[in-house]
Amino acid sequence: MAGSTTFVTKLDQDAGQRLETMLRDAGYEFREVAHARFGAKGEGVNAVLYTSGKLVIQGKGLADFKLMRLSEITGPPVARLEVATIGCDEAGKGDYFGPLTVAAVALTPEEEPFLDEVPLQDSKTLRDGQISEAAEHLRNVLPHEVITIGPSRYNDLYESFGNLNRLLAWAHAKAMLALHDKTGLKRVLLDKFCDESVVKRALGARAGDIELESRPRAEEDPAVAAASLLARDAFVRGIARLKWVAGITLPKGAGAPVLKAGRALIAQKGRNILREVAKLHFKTTEDIT
């Protein structure tokens, strides 16, 4: 995967001066840029340092620039993660169409600085294209487990569990245990969606293998953020594949476009198609039938 080709950071006066000297010594081509101390081009990047201290770097040589140039000025990236962690998150639970996806990602403090090109943040703040690019990279470099539950299977499981939280807990338990078995890691951080006791019951006899912590907004942790990216990417790819079942592109969410698409589907294929593409327990089903 090609990493992100834009990077923004902030430098103080001294760091900015040292960077300028470094780039001049390296033979970069300098130019004037409005409201900037300098603009410089070389080694596959364009760098602009604004008078505010904001540094913007763009180009295919970004990764090498950060490693060989910027790290000499700012030092290596500082890891936010304190201990090796399995992060868990899900996607699709609020979307009428498409699968439910659950992801678990194992991350260590030593690995985190090498992911500085990946936007390790809540996937809901990113565009689908950014998520796809980041997820491809994460799949290649980090141990992970992704569970995709298509609508037909989801509807069967929901009828069996009778409750979305218990279904989610079951899926998360499968993912975290599978990754524990691969990596030996015990610490698991989960973006909280229910009381921890529900997840511990889903772990069953293996609850002792996992040191579970769940908390709201856990996507602030890089391991959970990585899981959020993988889960969302799996959801986006899953709902896209359902076009071949539905015959139309299915919208995300549960708003007006979903109602319109649902009514069109029923008109074209009959009510039974919903079991193959949608989560039937949503109130949306009543609204469109």
Question: Helix and strand layout, with pairings?
Answer:
Elements: E1 6-10, H1 13-25, E2 29-31, E3 36-42, E4 45-50, E5 54-58, H2 62-74, E6 85-91, E7 100-107, H3 128-141, E8 144-149, H4 151-161, H5 164-183, E9 187-191, H6 196-203, E10 211-215, H7 222-241, H8 243-246, H9 256-269, H10 274-277, H11 283-288
Parallel strand pairs: 6-9, 9-10
Antiparallel strand pairs: 1-5, 2-3, 3-4, 4-5, 6-7, 7-8
Helix pairs in contact: 1-2, 3-7, 5-6
Structure explained in plain terms:
- The protein is of the alpha+beta class and 289 residues long.
- It has 2 domains: 6-74, TATA-Binding Protein, CATH 3.30.310; 85-241, Nucleotidyltransferase, domain 5 (2-Layer Sandwich).
- Helices cover 44% and strands 20% of the residues.
- The chain has helices at 13-25, 62-74, 128-141, 151-161, 164-183, 196-203, 222-241, 243-246, 256-269, 274-277, 283-288; strands spanning 6-10, 29-31, 36-42, 45-50, 54-58, 85-91, 100-107, 144-149, 187-191, 211-215.
- It has a 5-stranded antiparallel β-sheet with strand order 1-5-4-3-2, with helices on one face. A 5-stranded mixed β-sheet has the order 8-7-6-9-10, sandwiched between helices.
- Helix 1 (13-25) packs across helix 2 (62-74) and helix 5 (164-183) crosses helix 6 (196-203).
- The mean pLDDT is 92.
